[in-house]
Design a protein that fits this description.
By secondary structure, the chain is of the alpha/beta class. It has 8 helices and 7 strands.
């Protein structure tokens, strides 16, 4: 038996990845027990993020500026774009510190089961970006998961990018079959980035 407000909090927490109804109840009780130290700061942080964080129109990253800090950084190689599935993959690549180009977040992978085709992802944006970029894009690094959908997406993108005259490579060494970038350690990501190879 809970109040409507508490019930709503538990339902919202239960929708987060890794939290079920029981974990959400424990989290809600913990937050309420530590109202001043954790609940209020969390509520303030959530409100601020909701008001200030926007997707970058160039790459799809999340930041308080548009374009994001990565796209606006003149020290980055604009001719080198790393394509990732989701923003958390971009953050994983950045933690590794070995990539000095720019990014493109697809928003997922091609999946017939989920009804995700190229137009539901940011594939048209990527192709347009490569066609119109100044300075021109020299290389696209496909940093997609080693899943069936990730491999399918990588092959599709390689076929679409080939006529545009851009070199297409992919992460190789260090990424296990079925692995996701967000779960890899920094050294593995860095080794995989350095060992990338062209898509055949």
């Amino acid at each position: 038996m809970t109040s409507e407000a508490l019930d709503q909090l538990i339902k919202q927490l239960a929708r987060l990845p890794g939290l079920g109804p029981r974990s959400a109840r424990r989290a809600a009780l913990h937050l309420l027990k530590h109202r001043d130290r954790q609940l209020r700061p969390l509520a303030d942080a959530l409100a601020r993020v909701a008001a200030e964080v926007v997707p970058c129109r160039m790459c799809g990253n999340l930041d308080t500026t548009d374009p994001c800090a990565i796209c606006a950084d003149g020290r980055r190689d604009a001719g080198l774009i790393c394509v990732v599935e989701e923003v958390d993959d971009l953050w994983a690549m950045e933690r590794g510190g070995g990539f000095l180009g720019r990014y493109h977040v697809l928003g997922g992978t091609l999946s017939a089961i989920d009804g995700l085709g190229p137009d539901e992802l940011r594939v048209p944006d990527l192709l347009r970006r490569v066609e119109t970029a100044e300075p021109p894009v020299n290389e696209i690094v496909l940093a997609l998961g080693a899943t069936v959908d990730g491999q399918t997406t990588a092959h599709y993108l390689a076929e679409r990018l080939q006529p545009l005259g851009v070199q297409v490579s992919r992460l190789a060494l260090g990424v296990p079959l079925g692995g996701q970038l967000t779960y890899l350690d920094d050294g593995t990501i860095d080794a995989a980035l350095r060992a990338r190879r062209p898509v055949s």
